[in-house]
Amino acid sequence: MTWRKSSYSGNTPHDCVEVADNLPGPIRIRDSKRPGTGVGPAIVSGTVPWTTFLSALRGGTLAWVRG
């Protein structure tokens, strides 16, 4: 499994979401602040919900809010 930084993430090294979408099956999403904790991904999603979510983000249907 290879993790990559999400293009929607910030520019600081620990202010991002990492995605592993290079394997068949579920998409794995994790917080970059906890990559080696052994707790695994924070979220596991099927490909259809993940694709729907990304389309909504790209299409402006969802607002991106930074806290």
Short structural description:
By secondary structure, this protein is α+β, with helices and mostly antiparallel strands. The chain has one helix spanning 47-59, and strands at residues 4-5, 17-20, 27-31, 43-45. It starts with a strand and ends in an 8-residue tail after the last helix.
Determine the N-to-C terminus distance. 29 Å
Q: Supply the number of helical segments.
A: 1
Uncertain stretches of 5 or more adjacent residues: none
**Which sheet architecture does the biggest sheet show?**
4 strands, antiparallel
| Number of strand segments | 4
Oligomer: single chain
Q: What percentage of amino acids are in beta strands?
A: 15-25%
Order of helices and strands: EEEEH
Average pLDDT confidence is 77
| Radius of gyration, CA atoms, in whole angstroms | 12 Å
Strand line-up across the major sheet: 1-2-3-4
Q: What spatial form do the alpha-carbon principal axes imply? A: flat
Helix content: 10-25%
Question: What would you call the structural class?
Answer: alpha+beta
Topology:
Elements: E1 4-5, E2 17-20, E3 27-31, E4 43-45, H1 47-59
Antiparallel strand pairs: 1-2, 2-3, 3-4
